[in-house]
Amino acid sequence: MVISPQAAEVFIHGYSSLLAEVHRLSNGEAGLEILKMLAAARDITIATPSIIGTAAARLERKGRPVPPEVVCAIKSLQLKQWVYLRDTKTYSVFLEPTGNSAYAVLGLTNRLRDLLGGSGVSLRTGLVKYSGRFVCDGIASNPVWLGPNYRKDFSTNLAALKKEGNFHVSPSRQPITPPGAAR
To answer: Exposure pattern of 95-125 as b/e (b: 16+ CB <10 Å)?
Structure first.
């Protein structure tokens, strides 16, 4: 339910470094706690995707390069109010807010259920394509716990998505569709 410790370490270090640089480039608010700073910088990368390359180049010039696979992962970032439905033995189930697709998602170092205290929640978080899987970036906000009827409805939707081929286990089979993109 989590990626390998080595892959997690590479991602976390690169993601944090690049987002901190994005925060500096955007003249972000000083003195924010680390998760709030990372979340603010993550929002900036969504609003201004070109800043990712600028930040990566600056870190390269400073002798602190971000691995290319992490830069690619950040470029694939999809930040949404996802529905985290439940866990299986090997992944967590995320549904797009539109209900059109679902994903098998891994955590970085902890299971999502452990981070949140349970499953069956709508939350704002980022998913990236990394290490051949969909991975949650671990920065979660706006949690809304789902009642049993909502969970049942989402489970029914998940079953239909699986039948339609819209449940995606790995990015090589199907990329996350950006909001507003045609199918």
So the answer is: bbeeeebbbbbbbbeeebbebbeebbbbbbb
Distance separating alpha carbons of residues 62 and 50, to the nearest angstrom: 19
106: tokens are 């891994």
Listed in sequence order, the DSSP H helices in 26-97 are 34-47, 50-61, 68-75
The torsion angles phi and psi of 142, rounded to 5 degrees, stand at: 55, 45
pTM of the model: 0.90
Tokens encoding 3: 């990626």
Q: Which pLDDT tens digit goes with each residue over 94-144? A: 999 899 999 999 999 999 899 899 999 999 999 999 999 999 999 999 999
Amino acid at 156: T
Nearest-angstrom CA–CA distance, 93 and 101? 11
Single-letter amino acid code for the residue at 46: I
Give strand pairing partners of 1.
none
